[in-house]
């Protein structure tokens, strides 16, 4: 269990308030730091956990079932550990050994790096940088001309070099603080750049050799799975609250909705079992063979997108059954639905 029942109740009791604040609260961040949940894929020599991949996926799911924004941030924060082997060893120590270490950033190459003596002059704007308001390091992809060839280069930025543009106004995952960041002609030394095709250290760690896109797809799908479970939990609670009134006014409605919920719970369990079967099989295959074929990667991709589609369909069928009270943003049922809809919009989970 990730947190005690008491802590889970405390987190959920303040969930709507955190939406208004737009970020995780200091007490929740303290819990994350204590359990090193942003360091699940950071080596122990850098004060990380180096959690087994499937165990970490379960953690993402469990955290998202507690609170969507919490699950999303733990998945995003942990994902930053994937960059460890591609940084210079001394740089990775500076980035990851802080207790509060959190990397925020973007994989979109929406910046430009102009070669200079000893480094690059960087300008750009990157959207959807979750955790931007308390990140200790930022990474961002830039386009750079190397001779006549354009390449993508990741740059490492310090908070004082970055301006956070508070523009995250999505309908869900409101407490992730996924704002844009802007950089204007900032010099970045060559030592503070890296490419995901050029590892420099920790070459024996399997997680760093696993295809990055597949890693990200599975991580986000696990969050969707956890939010889906949270939605079903809140649906059942909402139904129980309506039971007394509906037994008087419309007893048939209660029994019909209860049957539908039970059907979707069964469907959810099937989705979850299939997800972990395929992902675990993919990971075992990778560890044994040292690589995944394109067909094997495609199977994982298809599974993650299929799961996301299923979770959305469950929400779209059940939410309209509860009337106006279910569309009020200050209810946990509505919050779970909004989080589910928002998480499913990540480009890696889109059906096409």
Automatic annotation (TrEMBL):
Keywords, comma-separated and alphabetical: Oxidoreductase
Oxidoreductase is among the record's keywords: yes
InterPro entries from the UniProt entry: Acyl-CoA_DH_C (IPR013107), Acyl-CoA_Oxase/DH_mid-dom_sf (IPR046373), AcylCoA_DH/ox_N_sf (IPR037069), AcylCoA_DH/oxidase_NM_dom_sf (IPR009100)
Organism: Seinonella peptonophila
Name of the protein this chain belongs to: Acyl-CoA dehydrogenase
Domain (Acyl-CoA dehydrogenase C-terminal) ranges: 219-350
GO molecular function, one term: flavin adenine dinucleotide binding
């Amino acid at each position: 269990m990730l947190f005690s029942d008491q802590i889970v109740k405390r987190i959920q009791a303040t969930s709507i308030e955190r939406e208004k604040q737009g970020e995780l609260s200091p007490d929740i961040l303290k819990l994350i730091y204590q359990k090193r949940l942003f360091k699940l894929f950071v080596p122990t020599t850098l004060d990380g956990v180096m959690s087994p991949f499937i165990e970490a996926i379960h953690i993402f799911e469990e955290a998202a079932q507690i609170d969507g924004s919490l699950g999303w941030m733990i998945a995003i924060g942990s994902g930053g550990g994937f960059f460890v082997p591609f940084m210079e060893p001394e740089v990775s120590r500076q980035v990851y050994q802080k207790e509060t270490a959190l990397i925020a950033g973007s994989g979109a190459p929406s910046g430009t790096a102009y070669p200079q003596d000893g480094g690059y002059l960087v300008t750009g704007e990157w959207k959807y940088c979750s955790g931007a308001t308390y990140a200790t390091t930022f990474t961002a992809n830039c386009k750079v001309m190397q001779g006549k060839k354009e390449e993508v280069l990741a740059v490492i930025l310090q908070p004082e070099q970055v301006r956070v543009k508070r523009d995250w106004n999505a309908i869900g995952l409101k407490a992730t603080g996924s704002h844009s960041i802007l950089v204007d002609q900032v010099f970045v030394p060559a030592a503070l750049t890296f490419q995901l095709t050029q590892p420099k250290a920790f070459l024996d760690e399997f997680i760093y050799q696993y295809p990055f896109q597949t890693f990200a797809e599975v991580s986000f799908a696990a969050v969707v799975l956890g939010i889906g479970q949270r939605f079903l939990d809140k649906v059942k609670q909402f139904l129980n609250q309506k039971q007394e009134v509906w037994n008087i006014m419309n007893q048939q409605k209660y029994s019909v909705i209860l049957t539908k919920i039970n059907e979707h719970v069964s469907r959810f369990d099937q989705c979850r079992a299939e997800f972990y079967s395929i992902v675990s099989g993919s990971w075992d295959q990778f560890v044994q063979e040292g690589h995944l074929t394109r067909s094997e990667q495609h199977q994982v991709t298809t599974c993650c997108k299929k799961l996301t589609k299923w979770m959305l369909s469950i929400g779209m069928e059940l939410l309209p059954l509860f009337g106006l009270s279910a569309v009020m943003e200050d209810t946990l049922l509505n919050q779970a639905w909004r989080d589910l809809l928002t998480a499913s919009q990540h480009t890696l989970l889109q059906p096409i």
